[in-house]
Write a structure and sequence with these properties.
Length: 697
């Protein structure tokens, strides 16, 4: 027996020392394998409006048919020459020379013709080329080349607009997201971690691990695209990075908090980490699973951009989870206790007792739970009324935080040509009845002009100019009338794409929202073994979503001057706030349930859970809100709006709902919180002494 015990004693430490190194080696191998694919993610990113739409949409069908017509898809531009007070003869000569140079340098579909404005201040040239096709890089090169030639002179401005220029300007913003978004996110998380840990070294560990997880997620997202055709957009890849750093740092905060606690009780860091993972691992797994399940519900959406964000966001959350449960513990164990310097948790010591802010907040909620609950509900309901003040749908030209040339062109055209559309509507009709369709379109009251274009494969293209300005009520009515009356034909173009985006998003909200609620509710029921507690958490996150959107309605138009709201804001903010909000509810409720299982009375269990988890949840909420707030500094309003609503919602959820409302509801409901589970009855000898793994430190 003696030699056998000695052998076990000698091999045990060696085995413990080998495991972290094996995990590090495994991660090095994984990163080496995915590295070539991570760098390719930007190559498969597409941000055309038509790429966001389902294949059944009219404008998508138009785009696909145009691809098969002679020359393929056309990149359409509008050159706008303008001088306040009227153009001079020299200005017109300059415009003619520049347009001629553009015609010589590029294979255009037709020779551009000058269209003067009624007041003589503006000249408009329509320029189109099939050479770029669907290649976004060639399109951008064509647009940039035209802009190099079309330059203003003293007193005369020249701007290049049109659908092609708008798409290039949007692509420039999306392409610029990668670096600034990553650097800003890293900086924000680093500052918060330094403030939270007050250590010169510890903050680097979760931040570095999150960076590794982000690199892994890019490789996995690229593989997902190659294997299943998952759509990748600038928005989805940007949100994936936010989720990796936000959710990953949250998991790291929970693990490190519990690890610090275990280091005071357990001598060896390896054993302390095992205990920490045994304690908080189930809650971390459950919370990440809830977020992943909520995001995967987006697969039910018709909108390609929303549907693609589901698996892309899930990849980010799961990569963060795997990294924080394997790589983070390995690095922390190898660094030992010194990683916490100067606040090193010594073995056998007790942490300093400090007055807990969350204990005080919980006590105030516990004294008058019904008053606190009613006041909070009224406050959230009042804030939700702000949704009535949300601006209307965001127009394409209003989607930029900074005014690019393409938007300046559209604004100039709207002023100079008040009775004429400046953006073509494309009608695709069967060639056999093209003449009849053309005649009918020309006779429509909302149409200023219509010209027959290319034919091929049994289809003919008709280019229509509406009398109303782009995306105005008049133009929208014209597009809908054409679609209603031209049976067998398809109506597309930039404005039609925006209509299809709004209609598809409205359909997606009706389908996806119930699926998300049911999925999250089922997971919570299984986890908490109750029906009332999950319903309370789901109701709380719905209230937070409404209040966050309401605050957006009070801020976007009146304070920030936004002209519209992105159609996808409601759905995406709902999915993220429900999934991420329930995430924190799991940490709190899991600890509350544990205290109840140990025999604590409902009020005591709720206050203990808040006192022990409040600090960690608050830190996690601040980090997550700050990472999403990074989006408010990006160049597209849909990202600004999404980042604002989610960050505000996370803060409301963290400091109002979790702290006051859920706690006060738990105190008020008592054991009914756990109905119909065994905890809903009076404690007995079987339940009073049970223990479950501790969720958080």
């Amino acid at each position: 027996m003696g030699p056998e015990k000695a052998g076990k004693t000698s091999t045990g430490p060696r085995r413990r020392a080998a495991v972290p190194w094996l995990l590090l080696g495994l991660w090095v191998a994984v990163l080496a394998a995915v590295g070539p694919f991570a760098a390719k993610l930007s190559d498969v990113q597409h941000d055309r409006a038509v790429d966001y739409l389902p294949s059944s949409a009219d404008s998508t069908r138009v785009a696909k048919i145009e691809d098969r017509l002679p020359g393929g898809e056309a990149t359409e531009l509008v050159l706008v020459y303008h001088r306040d007070g009227g153009l001079r003869p020299a200005d017109r000569d300059t415009a003619a020379r520049q347009v001629a140079a553009i015609t010589r340098a590029n294979p255009l579909t037709a020779t551009p013709e000058a269209v003067p404005s009624p007041d003589g201040s503006t000249l408009m040239y329509a320029v189109a080329s099939n050479a770029p096709g669907t290649d976004e890089k060639k399109r951008d090169a064509f647009v940039d080349g035209v802009r190099e030639v079309a330059r203003g002179t003293d007193g005369m401005s020249v701007v290049v607009g049109g659908p092609g220029a708008l798409a290039t300007d949007a692509a420039e913003v999306y392409n610029s997201l990668g670096g600034p978004l990553l650097y800003t996110t890293v900086a924000v998380v680093a500052i918060l971690l330094i403030l939270i840990y007050r250590s010169p070294l510890l903050w680097l560990v979760p931040l570095a691990v999150a960076g590794v997880a982000d690199y892994l997620s890019m490789g996995v997202a690229y593989g997902l695209h190659q294997a299943f055709g998952t759509s990748v957009s600038g928005q989805s890849s940007g949100v994936m990075t936010i989720l990796v750093f936000g959710a990953g740092t949250d998991y790291a905060l929970l693990i490190i908090s519990r690890y610090r606690e275990e280091l005071r009780r357990v001598e060896r860091p390896y054993d302390a980490m095992k205990e920490a993972l045994r304690g908080c691992g189930p809650a971390v797994l459950a919370s990440s699973g809830t977020v992943a399940a909520g995001l995967l519900c987006l697969l039910a959406a018709d909108l390609n951009s929303s549907r693609g964000m589901g698996p892309t966001g899930t990849v980010g959350v799961l990569c963060a989870l795997v990294a924080m449960l394997t790589l983070l513990p390995a690095v922390l164990v190898l660094l030992g206790r010194r990683v916490f310097w100067p606040l090193v948790p010594a073995y056998g010591t007790e942490p300093k007792r400090r007055r807990s802010l969350f204990a005080a907040m919980g006590s105030s909620a516990g004294r008058r739970p019904l008053v606190v609950l009613a006041s909070g509900a009224v406050l959230l309901g009042a804030l939700a009324l702000g949704t009535l003040n949300l601006p209307g749908p965001l127009k394409q030209q209003d989607s930029f935080a900074h005014r690019p040339d393409s938007v300046a062109a559209m604004e100039t055209l709207a002023r100079a040509y008040p009775g004429r559309g400046t953006q073509p509507i494309t009608v695709i009709t069967p060639t056999g009845r093209a003449d009849t369709t053309l005649a009918w379109v020309r006779g429509h009251a909302g149409v200023a002009s219509a010209e027959r274009g290319r034919s091929g494969g049994g289809w003919t293209e008709i280019s229509v100019i509406a009398r109303g300005a782009p995306q105005s009520a008049a133009e929208t009515a014209t597009i809908k009338a054409l679609r209603a009356d031209l049976g067998g034909s398809y109506v597309g173009g930039p404005s039609a794409q925006q209509i299809d985006l709004q209609d598809t998003d409205a359909r997606d909200r009706l389908v996806v929202v119930p699926i998300v609620l049911v999925s999250v509710l089922l997971i919570l029921v299984l986890l908490l073994r109750s029906l009332v507690a999950p319903l309370l958490l789901v109701a709380a996150v719905i209230a937070v979503w409404g209040a966050a959107l309401g605050i957006g309605g009070l801020v976007f138009g009146p304070l920030l001057g936004f002209e519209g709201t992105d159609p996808g804001l409601g759905l995406l903010s709902f999915v993220f706030l429900v999934a991420l909000g329930v995430d924190y509810g799991i940490f709190l409720m899991h600890r509350m349930r544990e205290e109840s299982l140990s025999g604590a009375e409902p009020a005591a269990a709720a206050l203990t859970a808040l006192r022990t988890t409040g600090g960690v949840i608050a830190s996690a909420g601040l980090v997550l809100a700050a990472t999403f707030a990074v989006l408010t500094n990006m160049g597209l309003l849909q990202l600004v709006e999404l980042g604002f609503v989610i960050s505000v919602g996370v803060l409301l959820d963290t400091f109002l709902v979790r702290t006051y409302l859920v706690t006060s509801a738990s105190v008020a409901l008592g054991r009914k919180m756990w109905w119909p589970g065994p905890l809903s009855g009076e404690p007995d000898n079987e339940t009073a002494g049970k223990q479950e793994p501790v969720a958080v430190g």
